[in-house]
Model the fold of this input.
Amino acid sequence: MTPRRRPLKTLIRCVVAVIAFVAPVTAAQQAGKPTPPRRVTTDHLQIATYASHDAVAPGEPFSIVFDIRPRERMHVYAPGADGYRIITVALARNPVLVTQPLQYPASEIYFFEPLNERVPVFQKPFRLTQPLAVSAAPAQRDAVAALDAVTIKGTLEYQACDDRICFAPTSVPVSYTIRIRPPDAARAGGA
Amino acid sequence: MRRIIIGLAIAAAAAVGAHAQQPRTIITEVRAAIAAKDFAKGEALAEADRAARGVTSELIEAMSWLARGTYAAGQLDEAARFSADTYELAVDALKTRRMEDDRNLEIGLGAAIEVEALVRAARGDRSSAVYFLQREIEKYGNSSVHKRLQKNLNLLTLEGQPAPALDAGEHLGPAVPALEDLEGNVVLLFFWAHWCPDCKTQAPVIDALLQKYRAQGLRVVAPTQRFGYIVRGTNADPDAELRHIAKVRDQSYPFLRDEAIPVGEANHLRYGVSTTPTLALVDRQGIVRLYRPGNMTEADLDAAIRKLL
Done:
Protein backbone atom coordinates (compact mmCIF):
# COMPACT_ATOMS: atom_id res chain seq x y z
CA MET A 1 0.00 0.00 0.00
CA THR A 2 2.72 2.39 0.96
CA PRO A 3 4.38 2.46 -2.43
CA ARG A 4 1.01 3.17 -4.03
CA ARG A 5 0.46 6.20 -1.69
CA ARG A 6 3.76 7.88 -2.58
CA PRO A 7 2.68 9.14 -6.00
CA LEU A 8 -0.48 10.56 -4.43
CA LYS A 9 1.53 12.35 -1.74
CA THR A 10 3.86 13.71 -4.37
CA LEU A 11 0.90 14.89 -6.42
CA ILE A 12 -0.64 16.62 -3.41
CA ARG A 13 2.68 18.31 -2.62
CA CYS A 14 2.93 19.52 -6.20
CA VAL A 15 -0.60 20.89 -6.14
CA VAL A 16 0.07 22.67 -2.82
CA ALA A 17 3.29 24.08 -4.23
CA VAL A 18 1.55 25.33 -7.36
CA ILE A 19 -1.24 26.92 -5.31
CA ALA A 20 1.31 28.52 -3.01
CA PHE A 21 3.09 29.93 -6.04
CA VAL A 22 0.05 31.04 -7.97
CA ALA A 23 -2.18 32.31 -5.15
CA PRO A 24 -0.23 35.48 -4.33
CA VAL A 25 -0.03 36.37 -8.01
CA THR A 26 -3.75 35.89 -8.43
CA ALA A 27 -4.44 37.88 -5.28
CA ALA A 28 -2.22 40.66 -6.55
CA GLN A 29 -4.02 40.64 -9.87
CA GLN A 30 -7.34 40.75 -8.08
CA ALA A 31 -6.16 43.59 -5.85
CA GLY A 32 -5.76 45.62 -9.02
CA LYS A 33 -2.99 47.57 -10.57
CA PRO A 34 -3.02 51.25 -11.46
CA THR A 35 -4.90 52.23 -14.59
CA PRO A 36 -2.71 53.52 -17.43
CA PRO A 37 -2.07 57.23 -16.87
CA ARG A 38 -3.89 59.66 -19.10
CA ARG A 39 -1.77 62.64 -19.98
CA VAL A 40 -3.36 66.02 -20.53
CA THR A 41 -1.54 69.20 -21.48
CA THR A 42 -3.28 72.53 -20.98
CA ASP A 43 -1.89 76.02 -21.50
CA HIS A 44 -0.86 75.98 -17.86
CA LEU A 45 -0.32 72.46 -16.58
CA GLN A 46 0.94 69.05 -17.61
CA ILE A 47 -1.25 66.49 -15.93
CA ALA A 48 -0.98 62.71 -15.62
CA THR A 49 -4.01 61.14 -14.00
CA TYR A 50 -4.87 57.55 -13.13
CA ALA A 51 -6.73 55.40 -10.65
CA SER A 52 -4.58 53.53 -8.12
CA HIS A 53 -6.51 50.28 -8.81
CA ASP A 54 -8.13 49.00 -11.97
CA ALA A 55 -10.28 46.61 -9.88
CA VAL A 56 -11.57 46.89 -6.32
CA ALA A 57 -13.90 45.08 -3.97
CA PRO A 58 -16.64 47.02 -2.18
CA GLY A 59 -15.16 48.81 0.80
CA GLU A 60 -11.60 48.57 -0.48
CA PRO A 61 -9.97 51.99 -0.50
CA PHE A 62 -8.46 53.29 -3.70
CA SER A 63 -7.73 56.71 -5.10
CA ILE A 64 -7.70 58.91 -8.14
CA VAL A 65 -4.29 60.48 -8.53
CA PHE A 66 -3.31 63.69 -10.34
CA ASP A 67 0.40 64.25 -10.88
CA ILE A 68 0.60 67.87 -11.94
CA ARG A 69 3.50 69.83 -13.32
CA PRO A 70 2.91 73.57 -13.68
CA ARG A 71 4.37 74.83 -16.93
CA GLU A 72 7.04 77.51 -17.05
CA ARG A 73 6.35 80.33 -14.54
CA MET A 74 2.80 79.13 -13.84
CA HIS A 75 1.13 78.78 -10.48
CA VAL A 76 -2.29 77.59 -9.37
CA TYR A 77 -3.99 78.45 -6.13
CA ALA A 78 -3.81 76.25 -3.04
CA PRO A 79 -6.16 75.96 -0.06
CA GLY A 80 -6.12 79.17 1.93
CA ALA A 81 -5.94 81.45 -1.13
CA ASP A 82 -8.96 83.59 -0.30
CA GLY A 83 -10.45 85.32 -3.30
CA TYR A 84 -8.99 82.84 -5.79
CA ARG A 85 -10.25 79.65 -7.41
CA ILE A 86 -8.42 76.91 -5.51
CA ILE A 87 -7.45 73.86 -7.52
CA THR A 88 -9.87 71.04 -6.79
CA VAL A 89 -11.41 67.86 -8.11
CA ALA A 90 -15.17 67.85 -8.61
CA LEU A 91 -16.55 64.33 -8.97
CA ALA A 92 -20.00 63.72 -10.41
CA ARG A 93 -22.30 62.32 -7.73
CA ASN A 94 -22.46 58.55 -7.80
CA PRO A 95 -24.42 56.76 -5.04
CA VAL A 96 -22.22 53.67 -5.11
CA LEU A 97 -19.07 55.68 -4.42
CA VAL A 98 -17.85 56.87 -1.04
CA THR A 99 -15.50 59.84 -1.24
CA GLN A 100 -13.12 61.32 1.29
CA PRO A 101 -11.75 64.87 1.19
CA LEU A 102 -9.22 65.63 -1.53
CA GLN A 103 -5.67 65.39 -0.22
CA TYR A 104 -3.36 68.32 -0.97
CA PRO A 105 0.40 68.50 -0.44
CA ALA A 106 2.02 71.41 1.35
CA SER A 107 1.82 74.61 -0.68
CA GLU A 108 4.22 77.51 -0.90
CA ILE A 109 3.66 81.24 -0.59
CA TYR A 110 3.69 83.38 -3.73
CA PHE A 111 4.44 87.03 -3.07
CA PHE A 112 2.60 89.31 -5.49
CA GLU A 113 4.52 92.49 -4.96
CA PRO A 114 2.26 95.02 -6.75
CA LEU A 115 -0.61 94.24 -4.38
CA ASN A 116 1.62 93.23 -1.45
CA GLU A 117 -0.26 89.92 -1.39
CA ARG A 118 1.01 86.61 -0.06
CA VAL A 119 -0.98 83.74 -1.50
CA PRO A 120 -0.60 79.97 -1.08
CA VAL A 121 0.06 78.36 -4.44
CA PHE A 122 1.46 75.31 -6.16
CA GLN A 123 4.16 76.17 -8.67
CA LYS A 124 6.36 73.06 -8.54
CA PRO A 125 5.28 69.51 -9.44
CA PHE A 126 2.67 68.28 -6.97
CA ARG A 127 0.18 65.48 -6.44
CA LEU A 128 -3.51 65.59 -5.63
CA THR A 129 -5.05 62.40 -4.29
CA GLN A 130 -8.77 61.79 -4.18
CA PRO A 131 -9.52 58.83 -1.84
CA LEU A 132 -12.52 56.72 -2.79
CA ALA A 133 -14.21 53.39 -2.18
CA VAL A 134 -17.04 51.50 -3.74
CA SER A 135 -19.73 51.49 -1.10
CA ALA A 136 -20.03 48.39 1.08
CA ALA A 137 -23.01 49.84 2.91
CA PRO A 138 -26.01 47.48 3.15
CA ALA A 139 -28.22 50.07 1.43
CA GLN A 140 -26.03 49.95 -1.68
CA ARG A 141 -25.38 46.20 -1.67
CA ASP A 142 -27.87 45.34 -4.41
CA ALA A 143 -26.87 48.28 -6.58
CA VAL A 144 -23.18 47.38 -6.30
CA ALA A 145 -23.84 43.68 -6.87
CA ALA A 146 -25.50 44.51 -10.18
CA LEU A 147 -22.36 46.26 -11.45
CA ASP A 148 -19.30 44.82 -13.15
CA ALA A 149 -17.58 48.17 -13.13
CA VAL A 150 -18.06 51.70 -11.95
CA THR A 151 -17.26 54.78 -14.01
CA ILE A 152 -16.01 57.76 -12.08
CA LYS A 153 -16.49 61.06 -13.87
CA GLY A 154 -15.43 64.49 -12.82
CA THR A 155 -13.35 67.55 -13.54
CA LEU A 156 -10.11 69.03 -12.36
CA GLU A 157 -10.89 72.69 -11.71
CA TYR A 158 -8.30 75.40 -11.36
CA GLN A 159 -7.32 78.91 -12.23
CA ALA A 160 -3.73 79.70 -13.17
CA CYS A 161 -1.63 82.83 -13.36
CA ASP A 162 1.98 83.39 -14.29
CA ASP A 163 4.22 86.26 -13.33
CA ARG A 164 2.42 88.67 -15.67
CA ILE A 165 -1.05 87.49 -16.53
CA CYS A 166 -3.99 85.44 -15.31
CA PHE A 167 -5.80 82.81 -17.34
CA ALA A 168 -9.51 82.11 -17.33
CA PRO A 169 -10.64 79.37 -14.95
CA THR A 170 -10.15 75.96 -16.52
CA SER A 171 -12.02 72.70 -16.18
CA VAL A 172 -10.39 69.44 -17.35
CA PRO A 173 -12.85 66.54 -17.71
CA VAL A 174 -11.63 63.17 -16.45
CA SER A 175 -13.11 59.69 -16.40
CA TYR A 176 -11.97 56.32 -15.03
CA THR A 177 -13.59 52.91 -15.20
CA ILE A 178 -12.81 50.53 -12.34
CA ARG A 179 -13.87 46.88 -12.31
CA ILE A 180 -15.73 45.70 -9.24
CA ARG A 181 -14.57 42.44 -7.67
CA PRO A 182 -16.82 40.32 -5.46
CA PRO A 183 -16.83 41.50 -1.86
CA ASP A 184 -13.78 40.52 0.13
CA ALA A 185 -15.04 39.32 3.52
CA ALA A 186 -11.84 40.34 5.24
CA ARG A 187 -11.99 43.91 4.01
CA ALA A 188 -15.65 44.68 3.44
CA GLY A 189 -17.65 46.86 5.75
CA GLY A 190 -15.33 49.80 5.96
CA ALA A 191 -17.15 52.15 3.68
CA MET B 1 8.43 56.03 -79.29
CA ARG B 2 10.91 53.36 -78.26
CA ARG B 3 13.34 56.07 -77.20
CA ILE B 4 10.63 57.76 -75.13
CA ILE B 5 9.81 54.49 -73.35
CA ILE B 6 13.48 53.82 -72.68
CA GLY B 7 13.89 57.39 -71.46
CA LEU B 8 10.89 57.09 -69.13
CA ALA B 9 12.19 53.77 -67.83
CA ILE B 10 15.58 55.31 -67.08
CA ALA B 11 13.96 58.30 -65.38
CA ALA B 12 11.73 56.05 -63.29
CA ALA B 13 14.68 53.88 -62.30
CA ALA B 14 16.64 56.98 -61.36
CA ALA B 15 13.73 58.24 -59.25
CA VAL B 16 13.36 54.91 -57.48
CA GLY B 17 17.08 54.82 -56.93
CA ALA B 18 17.09 58.33 -55.52
CA HIS B 19 14.23 57.42 -53.19
CA ALA B 20 16.06 54.27 -52.10
CA GLN B 21 19.18 56.32 -51.41
CA GLN B 22 17.33 58.81 -49.21
CA PRO B 23 18.64 57.97 -45.75
CA ARG B 24 16.08 56.56 -43.38
CA THR B 25 16.08 58.56 -40.18
CA ILE B 26 13.71 58.82 -37.28
CA ILE B 27 12.35 61.95 -38.97
CA THR B 28 11.53 60.20 -42.25
CA GLU B 29 10.07 57.20 -40.41
CA VAL B 30 7.84 59.30 -38.18
CA ARG B 31 6.75 61.43 -41.13
CA ALA B 32 5.85 58.28 -43.05
CA ALA B 33 3.68 57.16 -40.13
CA ILE B 34 2.06 60.60 -40.01
CA ALA B 35 1.42 60.48 -43.76
CA ALA B 36 -0.43 57.20 -43.13
CA LYS B 37 -2.36 58.98 -40.30
CA ASP B 38 -0.90 56.42 -37.89
CA PHE B 39 0.08 58.78 -35.08
CA ALA B 40 0.32 55.96 -32.54
CA LYS B 41 2.94 54.27 -34.69
CA GLY B 42 4.78 57.58 -35.08
CA GLU B 43 4.83 58.04 -31.31
CA ALA B 44 5.99 54.46 -30.75
CA LEU B 45 8.81 54.96 -33.26
CA ALA B 46 9.88 58.15 -31.50
CA GLU B 47 9.78 56.46 -28.10
CA ALA B 48 11.84 53.53 -29.37
CA ASP B 49 14.38 55.91 -30.90
CA ARG B 50 14.63 57.83 -27.65
CA ALA B 51 15.17 54.61 -25.70
CA ALA B 52 17.89 53.53 -28.13
CA ARG B 53 19.71 56.81 -28.82
CA GLY B 54 18.59 59.30 -26.17
CA VAL B 55 17.25 62.76 -26.96
CA THR B 56 18.81 63.72 -30.26
CA SER B 57 18.00 66.78 -32.34
CA GLU B 58 16.51 64.46 -34.96
CA LEU B 59 14.16 63.06 -32.32
CA ILE B 60 13.12 66.58 -31.34
CA GLU B 61 12.30 67.41 -34.94
CA ALA B 62 10.46 64.09 -35.35
CA MET B 63 8.36 64.90 -32.25
CA SER B 64 7.55 68.30 -33.71
CA TRP B 65 6.19 66.55 -36.80
CA LEU B 66 3.87 64.58 -34.56
CA ALA B 67 2.67 67.89 -33.11
CA ARG B 68 2.12 69.29 -36.61
CA GLY B 69 0.49 66.11 -37.88
CA THR B 70 -1.98 65.80 -35.04
CA TYR B 71 -2.80 69.51 -35.29
CA ALA B 72 -3.46 69.17 -39.02
CA ALA B 73 -5.72 66.20 -38.24
CA GLY B 74 -7.70 68.33 -35.79
CA GLN B 75 -6.49 66.35 -32.76
CA LEU B 76 -5.91 69.39 -30.60
CA ASP B 77 -5.34 67.57 -27.30
CA GLU B 78 -2.69 65.36 -28.85
CA ALA B 79 -1.13 68.30 -30.66
CA ALA B 80 -0.91 70.19 -27.35
CA ARG B 81 0.74 67.21 -25.70
CA PHE B 82 3.28 66.67 -28.49
CA SER B 83 4.12 70.35 -28.81
CA ALA B 84 4.64 70.72 -25.04
CA ASP B 85 6.82 67.61 -24.93
CA THR B 86 8.85 68.77 -27.94
CA TYR B 87 9.24 72.23 -26.45
CA GLU B 88 10.57 70.84 -23.17
CA LEU B 89 13.06 68.59 -24.91
CA ALA B 90 14.22 71.44 -27.16
CA VAL B 91 14.67 73.88 -24.28
CA ASP B 92 16.64 71.25 -22.42
CA ALA B 93 18.80 70.56 -25.49
CA LEU B 94 19.54 74.27 -25.84
CA LYS B 95 21.49 74.13 -22.59
CA THR B 96 24.24 72.26 -24.40
CA ARG B 97 23.64 73.02 -28.10
CA ARG B 98 23.34 76.18 -30.15
CA MET B 99 20.23 76.52 -32.29
CA GLU B 100 22.21 78.26 -35.03
CA ASP B 101 24.41 75.17 -35.38
CA ASP B 102 21.59 72.68 -35.32
CA ARG B 103 18.89 72.86 -37.98
CA ASN B 104 16.88 69.95 -36.54
CA LEU B 105 16.71 71.63 -33.16
CA GLU B 106 15.70 74.94 -34.72
CA ILE B 107 12.92 73.30 -36.72
CA GLY B 108 11.74 71.33 -33.69
CA LEU B 109 11.58 74.28 -31.35
CA GLY B 110 10.00 76.62 -33.92
CA ALA B 111 7.34 74.09 -34.83
CA ALA B 112 6.60 73.28 -31.18
CA ILE B 113 5.98 76.94 -30.39
CA GLU B 114 3.96 77.42 -33.57
CA VAL B 115 1.72 74.43 -32.91
CA GLU B 116 1.15 75.38 -29.29
CA ALA B 117 0.05 78.86 -30.35
CA LEU B 118 -2.17 77.45 -33.10
CA VAL B 119 -3.82 75.02 -30.68
CA ARG B 120 -4.57 77.83 -28.23
CA ALA B 121 -6.05 79.93 -31.03
CA ALA B 122 -8.07 76.98 -32.37
CA ARG B 123 -9.57 76.56 -28.91
CA GLY B 124 -10.69 80.19 -29.03
CA ASP B 125 -7.92 81.45 -26.75
CA ARG B 126 -6.50 84.10 -29.06
CA SER B 127 -5.10 86.24 -26.25
CA SER B 128 -3.39 83.21 -24.73
CA ALA B 129 -1.88 82.34 -28.13
CA VAL B 130 -0.68 85.89 -28.71
CA TYR B 131 0.71 86.14 -25.19
CA PHE B 132 2.55 82.85 -25.59
CA LEU B 133 4.13 83.98 -28.87
CA GLN B 134 5.07 87.36 -27.43
CA ARG B 135 6.89 85.72 -24.55
CA GLU B 136 8.67 83.27 -26.82
CA ILE B 137 9.76 86.13 -29.07
CA GLU B 138 11.19 87.84 -25.98
CA LYS B 139 13.24 84.70 -25.38
CA TYR B 140 14.20 83.80 -28.94
CA GLY B 141 13.97 87.20 -30.64
CA ASN B 142 17.66 87.16 -31.49
CA SER B 143 17.67 83.63 -32.84
CA SER B 144 16.91 81.96 -36.12
CA VAL B 145 13.31 81.12 -35.09
CA HIS B 146 12.34 84.77 -34.64
CA LYS B 147 10.91 85.22 -38.11
CA ARG B 148 8.78 82.13 -37.83
CA LEU B 149 7.35 83.22 -34.48
CA GLN B 150 6.75 86.79 -35.67
CA LYS B 151 4.90 85.50 -38.74
CA ASN B 152 2.59 83.47 -36.51
CA LEU B 153 2.06 86.40 -34.18
CA ASN B 154 1.10 88.61 -37.11
CA LEU B 155 -1.43 86.02 -38.23
CA LEU B 156 -3.02 85.59 -34.82
CA THR B 157 -3.25 89.10 -33.47
CA LEU B 158 -6.26 91.27 -34.21
CA GLU B 159 -4.04 94.22 -35.01
CA GLY B 160 -4.91 95.80 -38.35
CA GLN B 161 -8.38 94.28 -38.44
CA PRO B 162 -11.73 95.99 -37.93
CA ALA B 163 -12.70 95.84 -34.27
CA PRO B 164 -15.36 93.17 -33.64
CA ALA B 165 -18.69 94.67 -32.58
CA LEU B 166 -19.30 94.92 -28.85
CA ASP B 167 -22.12 92.95 -27.32
CA ALA B 168 -24.29 95.57 -25.67
CA GLY B 169 -26.45 93.24 -23.59
CA GLU B 170 -26.02 93.13 -19.84
CA HIS B 171 -23.81 95.80 -18.37
CA LEU B 172 -22.78 97.79 -15.34
CA GLY B 173 -22.60 101.58 -15.51
CA PRO B 174 -23.65 103.48 -18.63
CA ALA B 175 -25.07 101.62 -21.65
CA VAL B 176 -22.47 99.97 -23.87
CA PRO B 177 -21.94 102.14 -26.95
CA ALA B 178 -21.79 100.61 -30.41
CA LEU B 179 -18.31 100.93 -31.87
CA GLU B 180 -19.80 102.77 -34.89
CA ASP B 181 -21.05 105.39 -32.49
CA LEU B 182 -17.54 105.72 -31.11
CA GLU B 183 -15.91 106.32 -34.49
CA GLY B 184 -13.91 109.49 -34.23
CA ASN B 185 -12.81 108.44 -30.75
CA VAL B 186 -9.91 106.26 -29.71
CA VAL B 187 -11.31 103.38 -27.68
CA LEU B 188 -9.38 101.42 -25.11
CA LEU B 189 -10.97 98.04 -24.37
CA PHE B 190 -9.87 96.79 -20.97
CA PHE B 191 -10.85 93.12 -20.47
CA TRP B 192 -10.74 92.29 -16.77
CA ALA B 193 -11.98 89.76 -14.23
CA HIS B 194 -13.12 90.22 -10.65
CA TRP B 195 -10.60 87.68 -9.35
CA CYS B 196 -7.65 88.99 -11.38
CA PRO B 197 -4.77 90.52 -9.39
CA ASP B 198 -2.91 91.70 -12.51
CA CYS B 199 -5.99 93.63 -13.61
CA LYS B 200 -5.97 95.53 -10.33
CA THR B 201 -2.38 96.59 -10.90
CA GLN B 202 -3.29 97.84 -14.41
CA ALA B 203 -6.17 99.95 -13.14
CA PRO B 204 -4.20 103.04 -11.96
CA VAL B 205 -2.47 103.24 -15.35
CA ILE B 206 -5.74 103.29 -17.26
CA ASP B 207 -7.28 105.72 -14.80
CA ALA B 208 -4.37 108.15 -15.22
CA LEU B 209 -4.41 107.94 -19.04
CA LEU B 210 -8.17 108.34 -19.22
CA GLN B 211 -7.97 111.52 -17.16
CA LYS B 212 -5.10 112.71 -19.33
CA TYR B 213 -6.65 112.05 -22.74
CA ARG B 214 -10.42 112.06 -22.25
CA ALA B 215 -10.72 115.60 -23.62
CA GLN B 216 -8.84 114.52 -26.73
CA GLY B 217 -11.27 111.70 -27.44
CA LEU B 218 -10.10 108.67 -25.45
CA ARG B 219 -12.92 106.40 -24.30
CA VAL B 220 -12.67 103.30 -22.14
CA VAL B 221 -14.96 100.28 -22.30
CA ALA B 222 -14.19 97.53 -19.77
CA PRO B 223 -15.74 94.17 -20.69
CA THR B 224 -15.89 91.48 -18.04
CA GLN B 225 -17.79 88.25 -17.52
CA ARG B 226 -19.08 85.85 -14.90
CA PHE B 227 -17.04 82.82 -13.90
CA GLY B 228 -19.53 81.11 -11.59
CA TYR B 229 -17.84 81.93 -8.30
CA ILE B 230 -16.96 84.73 -5.95
CA VAL B 231 -14.60 85.09 -2.99
CA ARG B 232 -12.80 81.96 -1.73
CA GLY B 233 -13.90 80.25 -4.91
CA THR B 234 -17.42 79.88 -3.56
CA ASN B 235 -19.91 79.01 -6.29
CA ALA B 236 -22.31 81.88 -6.90
CA ASP B 237 -25.56 82.35 -8.80
CA PRO B 238 -25.54 84.99 -11.58
CA ASP B 239 -27.13 87.73 -9.46
CA ALA B 240 -24.73 87.21 -6.58
CA GLU B 241 -21.76 87.24 -8.94
CA LEU B 242 -22.96 90.43 -10.65
CA ARG B 243 -23.24 92.12 -7.24
CA HIS B 244 -19.73 90.90 -6.49
CA ILE B 245 -18.41 92.30 -9.78
CA ALA B 246 -19.96 95.69 -8.93
CA LYS B 247 -18.38 95.57 -5.49
CA VAL B 248 -14.94 94.76 -6.87
CA ARG B 249 -15.34 97.57 -9.43
CA ASP B 250 -16.16 100.05 -6.68
CA GLN B 251 -13.26 98.91 -4.50
CA SER B 252 -10.48 98.39 -7.03
CA TYR B 253 -11.60 100.27 -10.17
CA PRO B 254 -13.52 103.32 -8.91
CA PHE B 255 -12.80 105.23 -12.15
CA LEU B 256 -14.85 102.61 -14.04
CA ARG B 257 -18.08 103.64 -12.26
CA ASP B 258 -18.67 106.17 -15.05
CA GLU B 259 -17.61 103.86 -17.89
CA ALA B 260 -19.52 101.11 -19.66
CA ILE B 261 -18.82 97.59 -18.40
CA PRO B 262 -20.40 94.95 -20.64
CA VAL B 263 -20.90 91.75 -18.63
CA GLY B 264 -21.00 88.52 -20.59
CA GLU B 265 -19.02 85.98 -22.51
CA ALA B 266 -19.77 87.33 -26.00
CA ASN B 267 -17.14 90.07 -26.03
CA HIS B 268 -14.48 87.71 -24.73
CA LEU B 269 -15.33 85.23 -27.48
CA ARG B 270 -15.33 87.89 -30.21
CA TYR B 271 -11.96 89.19 -29.12
CA GLY B 272 -10.58 85.73 -28.23
CA VAL B 273 -9.84 86.79 -24.70
CA SER B 274 -8.95 84.01 -22.28
CA THR B 275 -6.36 85.92 -20.30
CA THR B 276 -6.75 88.99 -18.16
CA PRO B 277 -5.95 91.74 -18.37
CA THR B 278 -6.10 92.06 -22.14
CA LEU B 279 -5.98 95.49 -23.74
CA ALA B 280 -7.19 96.40 -27.22
CA LEU B 281 -6.80 99.85 -28.66
CA VAL B 282 -9.15 100.84 -31.49
CA ASP B 283 -8.33 103.85 -33.64
CA ARG B 284 -10.70 106.59 -34.79
CA GLN B 285 -11.64 104.55 -37.89
CA GLY B 286 -12.57 101.44 -35.90
CA ILE B 287 -9.41 99.44 -36.62
CA VAL B 288 -7.64 97.50 -33.87
CA ARG B 289 -4.16 99.02 -33.57
CA LEU B 290 -2.99 97.25 -30.44
CA TYR B 291 -3.95 93.84 -29.04
CA ARG B 292 -2.03 93.10 -25.90
CA PRO B 293 -2.63 90.30 -23.43
CA GLY B 294 -1.09 91.34 -20.12
CA ASN B 295 -0.26 94.56 -18.40
CA MET B 296 1.37 97.55 -20.05
CA THR B 297 3.43 100.20 -18.36
CA GLU B 298 2.00 103.70 -18.28
CA ALA B 299 4.76 104.90 -20.59
CA ASP B 300 4.09 102.17 -23.19
CA LEU B 301 0.32 102.56 -23.14
CA ASP B 302 0.60 106.34 -23.17
CA ALA B 303 2.80 106.16 -26.28
CA ALA B 304 0.37 103.76 -28.01
CA ILE B 305 -2.61 106.02 -27.30
CA ARG B 306 -0.83 109.22 -28.27
CA LYS B 307 -0.01 107.77 -31.69
CA LEU B 308 -3.74 107.42 -32.38
CA LEU B 309 -5.05 110.71 -31.00
Q: What stands out?
A: The mean pLDDT of chain B is 91. Chain B touches chain A at residues 77, 80-81, 83-85, 120, 125, 128, 131-132, 193, 195-201, 227-229, 231-233, 268, 274-277, 293-295 (CB under 8 Å).
